[in-house]
Amino acid sequence: MPVFEKLSQSSQARHWNDSIPLEYHYTAGVAGEEFRRELRDNGRFLAAKCSKCKSTYVPARLFCPQCFIEMKDMFPINNPGYVQSFTAVDRSRDGSKAEHPTIVALVRFESAKGGIIHRLQVDRSDQVVLGMRVHPLLKDKFSRTGALDDILAFKPLE
Ligand SMILES: [Zn+2]
């Protein structure tokens, strides 16, 4: 099939199915690496604060998206998060009906932009209240790798 054929009308376009073998490595970036290291080593979430607009971001990022300046002030968040929004997922990955729904929440942190989307450790969605305080349940220190699955779930504060 000639691939250099010049088309004069879009209706002449043809397609074929094939595959292209690609290998790639994704890096989390400078701030992402710092965030992952803090999670792995100390079990905490790293935030970054902009020196110009004073906005704080969790997870930490290198540049303020409003001011376009580098954020050098990074520090761990010690406060619990809160549930900004949530949903119940009643399907497993293969599309079949799950035995129990998984509750997934956007967890945000006081005075910070951004947030972390993760599982919420509750049995039913009617146990979730918007704004409820949550803290992360983490793998033990020696099992953590710096990935977001170091977080097992977020658990409501008692
Ligand atoms: Zn800023």
Low-confidence stretches are none
Count of helical regions: 1
Largest sheet: 5 strands, antiparallel
In what order do the strands lie side by side in the largest sheet? 7-5-4-8-9
* β-strand number: 9
Distance between the termini: 66 Å
Mean pLDDT: 93
- Any idea what the shape is? extended
Coarse structural class? mainly beta
| Structural Rg | 21 Å
What fraction of residues sit in β-strands?
25-35%
Q: CATH H level: which superfamily?
A: Nucleic acid-binding proteins
Helix/strand order, N-terminal first: HEEEEEEEEE
CATH class: Mainly Beta
Cofactors and ligands present? zinc ion
CATH topology: OB fold (Dihydrolipoamide Acetyltransferase, E2P)
Helix content range of the residues, please?
Answer: under 10%
Assign the CATH architecture: Beta Barrel
The number of domains is 1
Structural account:
This protein has 158 residues and is mainly beta. It has a single domain (29-156), classed as Beta Barrel (OB fold (Dihydrolipoamide Acetyltransferase, E2P)). It contains one helix and nine strands, in the order αβββββββββ. It has a five-stranded antiparallel beta sheet with strand order 7-5-4-8-9, with no helix packed on it. It has a four-stranded mixed beta sheet with strand order 3-1-2-6, with helices on one face. The longest helix is centred in the N-terminal third of the chain and has 14 residues, at 29-42. It is extended and about 65 Å long. The model has no long low-confidence stretch (mean pLDDT 93). Residues 50, 52-53, 55, 64, 66-67 line the site of zinc ion (ZN).
